[in-house]
Amino acid sequence: MTDQATKRVLLAAPRGYCAGVDRAVVTVEKALDLYGAPVYVRKEIVHNKHVVTTLEKRGAIFVEETDEVPEGSTVIFSAHGVAPVVHEEAKALGLKTIDATCPLVTKVHREAVRFASDDFDILLIGHEGHEEVVGTAGEAPEHITLVEGPDSVDGVEVRDPDKVVWLSQTTLSVDETMETVRRLRQKFPLMQDPPSDDICYATQNRQLAVKHMAPDCDLMIVVGSRNSSNSVRLVEVALEHGSKAGYLVDYADEIEESWLDGVGTVGVTSGASVPELLVRGVLDYLAERGYEDVRPVRAAEESLVFSLPNEIRRDLKAAGMSDKMVHDAGFTEDGSLH
Ligand code: SF4
Question: DSSP string covering 291-305, please?
């Protein structure tokens, strides 16, 4: 039995919404306001169950492929990005498109295009089948080889070992990716690095906060969905850095009472696609069980914001919004759904 006095929560900061997710979610909300329901979204706008079901209730229809969207409708591309062929399909179907791809994913697309045009072999570190990887690889399929992790390095072949560069998915484990890069460099000593970090600031900062907390945690609860790459990585990072246990939950009611048996310190964090109200639900659940002492653990400050896609900005202005209102439209103080 854990003494009440020893029960506490370490609450990670930063956690939750990143700039790319906020922009993508607000893009769907503003599209619904401007054009009315339904608005079609190709794939989940961000990988979070709550966000998707909330937007569905407002009239968003999520589809897997562009050809499911009725001719002439509006379709939004998700934060994870799409391959050029998807833009072409949408054009052929006469769809109005709004691209909510995170600018930090677009940056990786541009790197892929540039290195491919210089005839490099590009080793893309990432998870097979993840939408972001499919989109990035689609920019230069002839030049890109997927590397799933350190254990797949042995099988990697290139045309010219002097002309190789590595790029990566934005939401990977920083440590595991560095290990993959180390092994790739052993094999291809002249391999170039990306011009700047591909693993984004939000992924890095959320992992950093978990690394600070994990050694003190008997249990880490990560709020996030199972298909959210950066959320799943947070559980792995917690376990690798000393948390005695770690679980991913979409909602507080998925927490099992037995997880708290003998637990003094609970770490709480959330993935980059998670609204803060879901974290509050977890904190309330813990407080009801004696974990009322909540201590923030801040690993980094974040202030990045992205402006909304051009199509939305243009139509908001046409609807009478000032530049300032258009700018402010994207952002809430607590990252909750609007
Ligand atoms: S996790 Fe990173 S890359 Fe993905 S949407 Fe957020 S900021 Fe962009």
Answer: ---EEEEE-------
pLDDT at 335: 38
Distance between Cα 115 and ligand 1 center (Å): 22
Three-state secondary-structure class, residue 70: coil
| Mean of pLDDT values over 83-110 | 97
Annotation says 301 is catalytic: no
Task: Pick the catalytic residue from 29, 44, 111, 132.
Answer: 132
**What is the arrangement of strands in the sheet containing 246-249, beginning at the earlier edge strand?**
246-249, 219-223, 265-270, 8-13, 294-298
User: Which atom of ligand 1 approaches the CA of 200 most closely?
Assistant: 2
Cut 0.90: pTM above it: yes
Atom of ligand 1 nearest to the CA of 230: 1
Range list of β-strands (E), 148-299: 164-168, 219-223, 246-249, 265-270, 294-298
For residues 266 and 217, is the Cβ–Cβ distance under 8 A? yes
Please tell me the residue having the least CA distance from ligand 1 atom 5. 20
